[in-house]
Design a protein that fits this description.
Layout (H helix, E strand, L loop, with lengths): L5 E2 L4 H16 L3 H17 L22 E7 L6 E7 L7 E2 L5 E7 L2 E11 L5 E11 L4 E4 L6 E6 L5 E7 L8 E5 L4 E5 L13
Antiparallel strand pairs: 1-2, 2-3, 3-10, 4-11, 5-8, 5-10, 6-7, 6-9, 11-12
Helix pairs in contact: 1-2
Length: 206
């Protein structure tokens, strides 16, 4: 994979943000070095009410997450090493419990969420796992957190506001197009999972 970068939203603010991110990642490719430097531009992006079009703040009936969750790709690099997308979860709906297998930042842009964070406490011989709940977080606009697998990599989010929640995800892979894992905490089942995007396609395998 080595095509051109793709912008799905035309916004000077977005282009400036991505340019800043790419410059930081080029100089500091290690998460421990990059993430502290990414926090300030990411916080400013979350605080700007004008750059994200209304169309990318809407739920979607055909999203790969189910529950009418919209998964709107905003930017991805041509080599698949970086993506930015908005996740729109309707009121009362929740994502599957899933992992990311990529590091980056996730922050709330609108609405409110409850996040449940898990870790794999035990793996059985048949591939099932026992998940342990490690955190329960209430997120409001402007709040954000780091993802650095395996730490805090498995979670689910649920919208607890009367309006849909919109979260912005900056991750160091083409996250909607890679195969990840969905978990069923009650049964321990682990299934292959690829969320896809509401507004963009993935290659047949990725």
């Amino acid at each position: 994979m080595g095509g051109a970068d793709e912008y799905f939203v035309e916004s000077p603010t977005l282009r400036e943000f991505i340019g800043r991110v790419k410059a930081i990642l080029a100089e500091f490719p290690v998460p421990a070095d990059a993430l502290p430097r990414l926090r300030e531009p990411f916080a400013r992006l979350l605080a700007d009410p004008d750059w994200l079009p209304e169309a990318y703040r809407q739920p979607c009936e055909t999203g790969g997450m189910g529950s009418n969750i919209g998964n709107w790709l905003l930017y991805r690099s041509g080599d698949g090493s970086l993506s930015l997308f908005s996740l729109v979860v309707p009121p009362g709906a929740a994502t599957p419990v899933h992992d990311h297998l990529a590091w980056g930042l996730v922050g709330l842009y609108a609405g409110e969420q409850e996040e449940l964070v898990y870790r794999v406490a035990e793996t059985a011989g048949d591939g099932r796992v026992r998940l342990e709940l490690t955190q329960v977080n209430r997120l409001k606009p402007g709040d954000f957190y780091e993802l650095v697998p395996p730490d805090n990599d498995i979670h689910t989010v649920r919208t607890v506001s009367a309006e849909p929640s919109v979260s912005i995800h900056l991750l160091t892979r083409d996250i909607g197009c890679i195969w990840r894992h969905a978990y069923e905490p009650e049964t321990g089942a682990v299934k292959p999972f690829r969320s896809g995007y509401t507004n963009a396609v993935c290659e047949a395998e990725g």
